Records
---
Amino acid sequence: MPASPYSHIGNVVFFLMATKPSSILDIGVGNGKMGFIARDLLDVCLNKSYLRKDWKVRIDGIEIYEPYIQDHQRSIYNNIYIGDAFEVIDRLESYDLIIIGDVLAHMEKQKAWLFLDKCALHSKHHILLNLPLGQWNQPDIFENEYERHVSFWDENEIKCFASDSSFFHFLGDKKYGVFFIHKDNYLFQRGEMLLKESSRLSTKGLSNKSLDILQYAQSLCPERAEIINNIGAIYLDRNELDNAIESFQSAIRKNPEFHIAHFNLASSYERKGNLKEAIIHYLKSIKLNPHFYDSAYKLGILYKKIALYDESLIAFDIAVKINPNLDKAYVNMGAINFLKGQYEEAITLFQKAISINNDNADAHWNLALSLLLRGDFKRGWREYEYRWRLKDAIIPKINIPLWDGKTNKGRILIITEQGLGDAIQFIRYVKPLSQRGLQVSVQCQRELKNLFKNIPNLETFTFDDYLPDFDFFSPILTLPYLFETTLETIPCEIPYLFANNDKIVKFQRLIGKNEKQKVGLVWAGKGSHEMDMNRSINLSMLSSLFELKNIEFYSLQKGDASKEVSLFNNIIDLTGHLEDFSDTAGLIYYLDLIITVDTSVAHLAGAMGKKVWILLPFCPDWRWLLDKEDSPWYPTARLFRQKKAGDWIEVIHNITQELSLFFPDFISLIS
């Protein structure tokens, strides 16, 4: 309105006397009341400056409606700028005090907030905000559309920005607020408001909008480390690691003691593979805030990843001392003890995690592996069923009932899961299922379909094939649980897999006839396997075998590791003829012995009743149990175990010596 109420003038005078600004910007000049009061008080009364040339206080004004401005206003103000204050203020300098008179109510709410932000940035110290509160409807006045109220304000929207010296006045049933706002407090509280809004948007998955708000907040509060850190967090979520690292580094420059920024920077470096820097910043975060257990936990995870197990256990121990209910830390501590061969301690830790959180599927899963490794199948199979609750579990999408282990009539579909070796190992349950009177089919990986076709009473399908109707189904690794399999009741009628006749003929032609003993080799598993670094070796490590006379070595190695064969001229490579596992079975049929690391070929050779020597790491897969040279799953298998983690030299030395004894009619060149 051209003239705001007079009831708050005493408050304005008090504020001017308290702050004594040397420069003022009056936004919404109207009839010039604020300019007259400020000029009379600050120059005439305090400075005794009666003439314009002697004024010491600069008072400028902005007015959008030019007809309001007359000579008497121009005589009081140094400058009056005509136009929309939202745009005009961008062209002006900063002022000690900015007075906003009834202007916000004439703006849409979003624009009003942005305008308040501009005022804060152009204020050196204070803002004096006059604002009608509540549903204060005001139409055009004097045919001036700018006098129309288009937004309505509640005092709680402003109070957090204002000092305790703010006042409220009532004009009839209308409430009017006079808010004294310090620039720094406004920008801090506004930053808090924008942080909350960006967080709200992020939880809704609107990261682009959240980032826009944070970047705007940074323009208001360029020194706020929290804002810069949150910008980095969005980049980290997007895996834009360079931008994330730059943001977290910037946040740390603003506040070197900001432990969250160090934690996030460590996470970014870890994801990028710069583990040295990641460790430095995790440790820095722990030092800055010893009560922030996430830093210790993540550091433990990182140490575990690079096999620094003792350091990892120390980090996890710090985490659980801060948060004794951190079940995931106990799971990882158990996993490290498992890898170190301390299985009893591992089981205790997994059980501790379960006692804290029975829904922790990782704890149940790891407990299952530990129990099965120790031969405790009764408890192990039960815990193994928790695999379906794991984060990355691929649950069969099939709309038929699960087999209950009791029904003995109808059609059952067995669905393979996990690796090819798992499918080969547990396809042995087809026979006991058939013996119960069930019609059995299997849905398996394409590489196994032709191999499984030779199994009596079994119909095979791949995951791409059309399926007929079934009465129920079972995941293949649930069958030992349903059969209540123990070490004594493992179905071990060997062989249960056979080479196809056409494949036998195929490899008879390729191999030909000679009197040499034939040994198949596999030295590496699939690189994507989480434990591949523990089970795979380089072919060169087996070179001592090649010094034995009258033995032909055949490569059964597939994948990238198969390229190593080219470095040796005494290995026969027929893997180009291996299109699926029925081909592999055809080649194995003609071999006298298979030497392999823990891969699917070990299972295939064992299932075919072929002599197979299996190289096992210090911490083996559960199915090979502990401290045994034989296997209840495969009677023809012999197990060569590491006695020390990572030490393949002794294992290969033992195999070389045993191989010379395995073929007694041949003389070893090894002394």
Note: The chain is about 45% helix and 15% strand.
---
Amino acid sequence: MSNNIYGLSMYIGSTKFSPKMPVFFDTNYAAYINKPPNTLITGAPGRGKTFLGMLLAAQNSIMNKVGVILDPKGDFRKLMALYNNDIINKVNIWDISVKPDERTGKLSLDKDTIGMLDPTCFTSNHDYNAQLTLDVIKDLMGKSLTDAQINIISNLIRDLCKAPAPNMKRLISKLERHEREDVRSVATILDLMFASPIAQILVYDRQIQKKVLNIKDGITVINMSGLTFPDPSKELDKCSSEEKISLVIVSLLNRLIRDIMFSMPVNIPKFLMIDEAWSVVSLPSSRGLIEEVLLKGRSKNMACILLTQATSHLDFNDGTDLDAGIQMRFAFGSQDAKDNLLTCQKMRISEYQQWAKAVETLGVGECLMCDVFGRHGIIQIKSDEEWKEIFKTTPELN
């Protein structure tokens, strides 16, 4: 942790205990030594994980990396202050939020955002779009969707995606006119869900030019504070329509970002940072997507940084193993003894029970770190005073 590879790592703090040593880190360094460049940051709210996320993002900008940050709470907008002060490179902010229309007063998305993530015309590949659209409907309908309904709907989707100017609104209309009542009932539920103003991002309008997301320059912060996310412990089938729509939007955003970043030259270092990562992996269709990013990151020179409150958020019963691609970890303080044990086991620490107890006593800004070589220790995250003042996520940080 204390070895500084010039140009490949930056100072993030120091070891807590004597002899105190500086700690250097870089999200993409693992790719240069043929290891997965993936990082998991966990901890209870207010203990320092978002602060570390912003610190790593700012340092990545200084190192001329291209990055995207999915920001459910709007915290990472603060990076713009560093850009405005000429400290870091370009920062772009894209807000996904609804506002009153100037003419009608009705809540609506920005015009250039409407239809941007419509799955029926997501790419130029009709078959890909058809499968993606079916996945979206499965995610929205949950376990209530029967095999018979899926077979009928999938055929309708396939035909629609091959037709000129497809969109979700036309698909729902097709379902509404179907001869079978159980198919029409699906249309009724989807119609209610898509009546939400935020759902306009999923319905392409031919009269409005579809926005193309440009993430090939600097850092793009996608502010998703306008979305409604469920509690991490809430089962998908018990989520509200707004919550399901929000989860689908995040899943499609990840897919779009992956496609763009995977197509970029390997010599460009890239990173994807996801705050409140549990919101992304809540959907079964998203887990495979994130698993692919974690597994292919090394060959694409693309780091993935996941921030979530608990390590157990990445544990599933469907065979998906997101932890397999994660070697670098930062565990901030948490009173969840069971999760602390799991965290230390994932770090492959032999005396994991003792270290798990230590995680419970960590102060604000302190964390148990495991680097790409498996070395571990407790460190104190530190940053420039100006940065600390701007971030202000944990003012008590030393």
Note: Residues 241-262 form the longest helix (22 residues).
---
Amino acid sequence: MVLLARVPELGPIEPLPTYMSRLAAANGASSLRDFRRHMGFRLDRWVGPADVCNRLSVVTGIEAGVLMSRNFNFDHRWFTYGTQRLPTEGLFRTAPRYCPKCIEGDFNNGAGRLDVRLRTRFPWLLTSIEVCPGHRVELVTSEVKYRGDMKLDFAAHVRTNWREIEKSIAEVKDTEVHPYDSYFFDRVAGKQTGNELLDPLPYFAALRLCTIIGDMVAPVTSRGRTGKRIGLTHPSRRMGFDVLSSRSSLLSFLTVTGDSFVNDNHRKALGLYGKFGEYLTANIDMAELQPMIEMVRDHAFENVPIGPEDGFLGGAGVRRWHTLRSAELETGVYFTVLRKILVERGAIPPSERGKKDSSVVVSVADVEAAAADYNDRISLEALADRLGLLHVTVRRLVRAGLFRSIYGTTSNMKEMFSRRDTDAMLEQWMGGLETTPLTENLVPLRTATRGFGRQSTELIFAYLDGKLSTKYLDEDASKTGFERILVDRREVRALLVKQPPGHKIHELSDKFNLQSRPGKAFFYSGFFEIVRWEPGHGRKAFDVATSESVERFFRDHDSLTNFSAGWMKRNQLHRVLKAAGITPLWSHTGTSINNVFRRADIEEFRKRSS
């Protein structure tokens, strides 16, 4: 075979069948069908395409590999074009389809016969593409359909329907070009694209995901007999592409879909993320889809109450969230108890408390902590028995902060404490002590304060603070806690009955025989050194006048009441001292009561009057 007389140039993205239509027209054939029959090119049989491309290469001078890459190679419901694998149903061969602007450019810039100039671009033949991004116009689909034996014979259509093409060029209008249109046009055209989620996927998978997600986010519309939405295919794909334009937008979509899934009272992973999740599950073995599957699975475990046992997208992952129902199944703790504990701890916010148990979502960490505390719980009565103390004493220790409840601080739950923490504290307090029998002075710590007017809690804190040097364990192992700890009663007395370093207000008033209010005024009159005394163990601090300053003042001064005792009546003494010109050092009211005089003045007056 020799080269044909006229071989038109093969367009950059021109399919082989439509190129052969131009080749037939250039060499005088009446149709592509007649050209194939005459030359023996039976591509329509879908068999032996390599042999046909080799023979076609001989007569055109175009490399067979290039021709093979432009051919439609069918395999059941799929076909390949170059490196793209696409579903056969997505290939539009019913009627001519074209961009009026591209056709106009071919007409103005080409040479030769009209039907040979106009080239078909592969993206025009895909039902998923409806816009020419370069010219920003919609593709036109001819009302004249191809005959059954003349599929893709575009040159023959141009010869017989040029007026229709002229009309479409004249009436063309600009349209909006969405990033979806540009992206998928560029993908099939072999141009560079930049979508981190869709670029790794085969074309058909990327398109299918846009369709599925778009159908999920598109508003509800009427449906046909097949159940599919009517008139939203292309717009919904654009919506799906917007979701898949970045990781952040896809994750936002997953968050909204996951929240809806939980709110619909689902407890299993079945149905999670709807059709999108079903598609990923059905294609879980697709290597190109693995990065997206891992991202979706990680997001699901991060945000939705599912676990590996649910088998979502292969089942890998670690559970991070529970519903109250799944928490009950895993921990064995009744869900109403878990709800009360988690509400008390703030793990279930007020906005969630009115929801059903299967819709309340709580972190695994909070559930495990609540379940562990529930299984470790002991009541106040059990705590008192474990400590060997009276209930009232344990209550005081709880109020003082020595023991903290693990839950039950609200009115609708009984207060509970930790058995594990209690045993650890007792081991710390009692560990290493020697055993010895009871004696007159070695008594149980629980009763060691009897007769001292002190509460046992004071002694317990003193013991825990290390203020007692003598401490043993009772030989009787049946006793528990502080009932078994032995301390020296004498040491306890010295510790608890210890007096402040001076006089309190009422003690100073008694010493000088002053009334209560004047006594307080005298206490703060500046004659004494005042210090702040901290008794500790929760008792309030108070002021005392140091013993040294009181005794030093008392050596040279005393009250009129004390001076008059055994001498004369206080009122009478007050009058005679006043008549003698002897005035008090301190006086509260100016009367005979609540006065303080110098001893030297009183002694001198006594000598003169004797």
Note: Confidence is low (pLDDT under 50) at residues 222-227.
---
Amino acid sequence: MDNLVSLFLEILEEKRGRPGNDFLTYLIQTPGMTEAEYRDSIVTLFMAGHDTTAGALSSLIFYFASFPSYQTRARDEGLSILGPDSHPNIPDFEKMPFLKACIRESMCINSPSTATISRVSAETLHIGGYALPAGIPIVLNIHAVLHNSQTWKDPDAFNPERFISANSTDDGKWMPCA
């Protein structure tokens, strides 16, 4: 773990010399943080990213195994864009709407996160007939949002097609899946 932390600190130093439009630059520009806080934030970000990515990929593999026709369709789409010996990149991924829809759908049904990090409201909020006073921690239940039948038709059914239509992402309801 010490080697990994050392690598993160090297990346942090490199980022100080070459700032960009990314989380690490934002972190470095946060006033009043100690070196230990920088280190801990980077380690937390890495571990959270590793854990959620592994969970998301495991879910996608499960759904592809459960629905071979979707797996075949996503594979065929990938091969048509990449060919048999190519190395995928982000611009290629943007040309694969069905694969992207499968990823979003698997993340909606089986989100790698079940709740948001708590936030503290600066003012009283009124939600669903309830008053939430200022200054209290608020946590969003992501699972409840993603499995809400008022938002999603058949929210527990694996249906990547819901993300294929022209209006599927226009209203932002897919954002908790991302």
Note: The chain has a mean pLDDT of 87.
